[in-house]
Structure formats: structure tokens, C-alpha cells
């Protein structure tokens, strides 16, 4: 059976643009375009409201724009639902997310769904210099923008390894309503050699940059939210997904300027070296994370 990467490359070729595989968001002449879609049965957590689901779906699509060094400016979405109540709650969440990412909703489409609810969210952004996954160079510093661990903690809650009652309400809100790191977009556009957002897993995200750039990413630490101490180990957080934090390869000479401009929680966590793949403290790691395959 074909590996996931080869399948995705084939899908990109069939869509008429093989370059899609190496970008988080793409577009012509300073525009960035991204679209993401979700089925509720596969993406809505048991403790997530319909408005939370709409919010997170919107942030997820906007995050690809931000990772590419862009400022989100416009949103369009289409939703299928079993009731008007669901449509209204999803719309509320999309609207709240639009305000947090700084983009206006310009078009919405509603549909009746007989069974599973679904949503597609398209976001358009602008940038002075788009940044792709490829471009990381030996000597670059790997910067983690935003904390890790929310997706991994959600997984432990769903497996009953952690009780929802033992998790602070503020942490639950961070899981269901991830922070959009809009304030990092300018720094990425100005200084980054490569960038990608963490939707499918931190190791997968780093591997996307490493494989696209033909380099080795040598990770020295992972930085998880201090509020997750005692609920999650650093080893568990390294595969965390849907945190929508960012992995950025920054030239060492520009690191100080990048960190000053980043405007978010930004941490230098490793280096780009000659080689292939991803390692943590010298140990090679497989790109494990979330996948629908």
C-alpha cells in the first residue's frame, strides 16, 4: 500500500499543482489561500460545543495562512447540519474566530445533512513574502511558536487516562479554542526560511519541513503549556496534534530580531543540520501523529 506522503503527492498532481504538497497556504501575487474541511464524527471532541467546533475549524484554516507569513483577511465557509440550532451555533463560533484572527466572513453556505455534520472553511490572506515548508538550511534555528500538548491531553481524556474533572476549565478552553498566532505572521514573512503549523502532530510538522527542505531537524527540547504539568509528559507532548502552534526555521543571524517581532510565545528549541529526518536529543524519531489514513 502506498505511504501517506506518496498518496498526498499523487493527490496534488491530480489537482494540477504538485507544489501544493510543500506549502501550508499558496496563492498568486501576495495572496495566500487555504481550505480545510472536517466531519463532526471525526473532529468534534465529546466536550466540545458546536460553536467551539466552528471556532476551531476556522482557526485551523487561518493557521495555515499565518504559518505561510500571511495576515488573514477573508473567510468563506460551508456547513452541513442536521438542525437549524447546529447551523446557528457553528455560525457563532466561526464569527468569534473571525474576530480573533482579524478577518471578515464574506460568504457562508448552509446545507442539510442527514447524518454527520461537516464544515469546510476557506481563508484568504496577504503577505509580502510567502514562506513554504521547503527552504530550511543547515545552521538555521528551529523556533516553536506557541505551546504544545493540548491535542495529546485531549487524547488522554478520551482514553480515560485523565479525568475531565481534573483538568482546569482554562485548559479545556485552550483545547477546544486554540489560539491563532496572528502576531507571528510578520516575523515569519520577514525572517523565516521555512514554516509550517501543527495540525497533524508536532513530529509530522517538523518532518514536513525536514523532508521538503532535504535537511535534518535536531530538536533539543519541547515546550508544553505549564498548566499541563502533571497531566502530560514532554515525551507525550512531542506528538501532540491540533495545537496549531508553529514550527519555523530562522537564520541564526536573524534569531534575535525574529523573537522580538514574534509577539507570541516563541522558543528556540533546536537546529537544522545536514542530514535527513527529525531527531530529539540525538535520537532519530519517526513522524508519528494524527492521521485520517
Task: Walk me through the structure.
The mean pLDDT is 92. The protein folds into two domains: 24-126, 2-Layer Sandwich (60s Ribosomal Protein L30, Chain: A), CATH 3.30.1330.10; 141-285, PurM-like C-terminal domain (Phosphoribosyl-aminoimidazole Synthetase, Chain A, domain 2), CATH 3.90.650.10. The longest helix has 18 residues, at 50-67. It has helices at 4-14, 40-43, 50-67, 84-101, 150-158, 169-176, 185-191, 202-213, 234-237, 255-262, and strands at residues 31-39, 71-81, 104-112, 118-126, 141-145, 194-197, 216-219, 246-250, 266-273, 277-280, 283-285. The radius of gyration is 18 Å and the shape is globular. By secondary structure, the protein is α+β, with helices and mostly antiparallel strands. The chain has a seven-stranded mixed sheet with strand order 6-8-5-9-7-10-11, sandwiched between helices. It has a four-stranded mixed sheet with strand order 1-4-2-3. Strand 10 (277-280) and strand 11 (283-285) form a beta hairpin. Helices cover 34% and strands 24% of the residues. Keywords: ATP-binding, Kinase, Magnesium, Metal-binding, Nucleotide-binding, Thiamine biosynthesis, Transferase. Catalyzes the ATP-dependent phosphorylation of thiamine-monophosphate (TMP) to form thiamine-pyrophosphate (TPP), the active form of vitamin B1. Residues 138-280 form the PurM-like C-terminal domain.
Amino acid at each position: 500500500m502506498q505511504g501517506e506522503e506518496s498518496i498526498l503527492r499523487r493527490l496534488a498532481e491530480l489537482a494540477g499543482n504538485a507544489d501544493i504538497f510543500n506549502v501550508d497556504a499558496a496563492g498568486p501575487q501576495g495572496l495566500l489561500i487555504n481550505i480545510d474541511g472536517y466531519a463532526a464524527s471525526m473532529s468534534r471532541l465529546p466536550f466540545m460545543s458546536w460553536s467551539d467546533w466552528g471556532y476551531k475549524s476556522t482557526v485551523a484554516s487561518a493557521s495555515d495562512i499565518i504559518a505561510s507569513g500571511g495576515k488573514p483577511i477573508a473567510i468563506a465557509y460551508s456547513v452541513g447540519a442536521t438542525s437549524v440550532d447546529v447551523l446557528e451555533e457553528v455560525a457563532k463560533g466561526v464569527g468569534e474566530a473571525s474576530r480573533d484572527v482579524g478577518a471578515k466572513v464574506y460568504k457562508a453556505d448552509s446545507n442539510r445533512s442527514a447524518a454527520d455534520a461537516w464544515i469546510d472553511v476557506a481563508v484568504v490572506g496577504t503577505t509580502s513574502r510567502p514562506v513554504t515548508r521547503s527552504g530550511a538550511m543547515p545552521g538555521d534555528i528551529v523556533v516553536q511558536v506557541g505551546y504544545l500538548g493540548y491535542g495529546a491531553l485531549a487524547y488522554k481524556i478520551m482514553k480515560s487516562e485523565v479525568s475531565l474533572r481534573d483538568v482546569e476549565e482554562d485548559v479545556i478552553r485552550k483545547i477546544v479554542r486554540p489560539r491563532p498566532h496572528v502576531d507571528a505572521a510578520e516575523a515569519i514573512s520577514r525572517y523565516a526560511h521555512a514554516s509550517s503549523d501543527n495540525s497533524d502532530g508536532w513530529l509530522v510538522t517538523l518532518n514536513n519541513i525536514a523532508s521538503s527542505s532535504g535537511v535534518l531537524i535536531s530538536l533539543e527540547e519541547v515546550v508544553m503549556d505549564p498548566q499541563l504539568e502533571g497531566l502530560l509528559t514532554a515525551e507525550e507532548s512531542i506528538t501532540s496534534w491540533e495545537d496549531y502552534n508553529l514550527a519555523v526555521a530562522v537564520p541564526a543571524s536573524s534569531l534575535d530580531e525574529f523573537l522580538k517581532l514574534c509577539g507570541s510565545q516563541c522558543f528556540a528549541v533546536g537546529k537544522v543540520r545536514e542530514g535527513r529526518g527529525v531527531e530529539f536529543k540525538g535520537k532519530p524519531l519517526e513522524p508519528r501523529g494524527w492521521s485520517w489514513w
